[in-house]
Amino acid sequence: MSAMKTNDLSGQKIIITGGGIGGASGALALALRGADVTLYERHNEFKEVGAGLQIGPHGVKMLDKWGLKEKAIEGGYLPDRMQFRDGITAEPILNMEFDEKFVEHYGAEYLVIHRSDLLNMLVEAAREAGANLVNGVKVTGADDHGDGVSVHLEDANTGEKLDDDEADVLVAFDGIHSVFRPLCADDEPVPSAYVAYRGTSPLAEDEDMKDLKDVRGYIGPRCHFIQYPLRGGELLNQVAVFQSPRYLEALTNGTEVPDDWGNNEEFKQAFDHTNEAVKGRLGNMWLDTWWQMADREPLEDWIASDRIIVMGDAAHPPLQYIASGAIMAMEDGECLAQYASDAVKAGDLNWTTVLREVADERAPRCGRIQTTSRFWGELWHVDGLSRLIRNELFREAERTGWFKYADWLWDYDATRREYLQDPSKGNLPKELDEWEYNLHKIARQRDEGKSAEELTI
């Protein structure tokens, strides 16, 4: 289906900084409501880091709304299921079927797609909707003057200062190292001690994997390994993640962390305890680049000023364990466009009020996703008795039905304004009240004066 375009935001000038999936989604969503959108991206081309991306049914419904669902499915892949296996024994412990019952329950399919393919679709659609997307220009700051924003620009290639651009609103989708997040919080990225290696290869030529139709995850002590098809089954996407002993040692000893933590030497030993199905695939990983995984603490208030808001990874960079980073950013853009459109229809477009409503709806939800991602990652990586209990809990979820654990994540629509009405929905379930993030625990124990040998890891 093609996207329906309105003139709800006609005459409103919106500037977006950052041309990743979030920024392009925001540009598209706002342009489809008739806004005058200019997006500035500092790189000379639009590109995404990494390969595969998982999009839950709530994300697929947004793509449908934007007229991109059919194109995304054609260029991506609809897996039959998500299957978790024990990283040591390779035994299946949970099958999450993406069948007719799943589609009926959530209203859409589960999609995997190449990051670059999705970004290209969003960029093309945003331009077709009328957005002006500009490469090679860096947004260095902005001044809010009450009835609008003066946005400061710089040539990203030469460093030359450019003339300011004026807008009603500035939306900062400028990533984990955002220029504008410091206006909201004095914090830094939080390394997780885990590192990711990625790789893609032709699937049809792979005798062992050519029949793969699932998202498959081996979860084992201190590591995991993910596999799924891309581009209609043309490519095999694989991701190998492990805990860096050198990072953990520096953290517990209070010494300087080496810049190259998670390097190839650590990678070569990280999966020795796993099964042959995992160890036999490690030769497909790219060794020239690895990703040191980090997030930030949940941000309670995304409002940098009355006319400036941070979104996407500038507001809520997560760990990747529940595959929600890109979809959260897509939700941000759609929520902003929807709430502004609703205000126009109500006869009262006040950007200060709209940004406040968007932030109050989105911050609790994204905070819960960030915190749940930390918990889910720790659950994947447990050892010993905890691993055996985890496996049995996963089996029990399959036996008794797992929808109840995923509904809060996948059955979401910003138009319901459910987090605005009840911010407590952003809290973890009460059963997890006593859980403490491992890195927080280490920091607390060190502050209490415990030695490296006494720390609980």
Task: Describe what you observe in this structure.
- The chain has 14 helices and 18 strands.
- It has helices spanning 21-32, 57-65, 69-75, 100-106, 115-128, 245-253, 264-270, 276-279, 325-345, 351-380, 384-400, 403-410, 418-421, 438-447, and strands at 13-17, 36-41, 52-55, 81-86, 92-97, 111-114, 132-135, 137-144, 149-155, 161-167, 169-172, 190-202, 215-220, 223-230, 235-243, 291-295, 303-305, 308-310.
- The chain has a seven-stranded mixed beta sheet.
- The chain is globular, with a radius of gyration of 22 Å.
Summarize the topology.
Layout (H helix, E strand, L loop, with lengths): L12 E5 L3 H12 L3 E6 L10 E4 L1 H9 L3 H7 L5 E6 L5 E6 L2 H7 L4 E4 H14 L3 E4 L1 E8 L4 E7 L5 E7 L1 E4 L17 E13 L12 E6 L2 E8 L4 E9 L1 H9 L10 H7 L5 H4 L11 E5 L7 E3 L2 E3 L14 H21 L5 H30 L3 H17 L2 H8 L7 H4 L16 H10 L10
Parallel strand pairs: 1-2, 1-11, 2-7, 4-13, 11-18
Antiparallel strand pairs: 3-6, 4-5, 8-9, 9-10, 12-15, 12-16, 13-14, 14-15, 17-18
Helix pairs in contact: 1-5, 1-9, 9-10
Structure, briefly:
With 457 residues, this protein is α/β, with parallel strands linked by helices. It is built from 14 helices and 18 strands. Helices cover 35% and strands 24% of the residues.
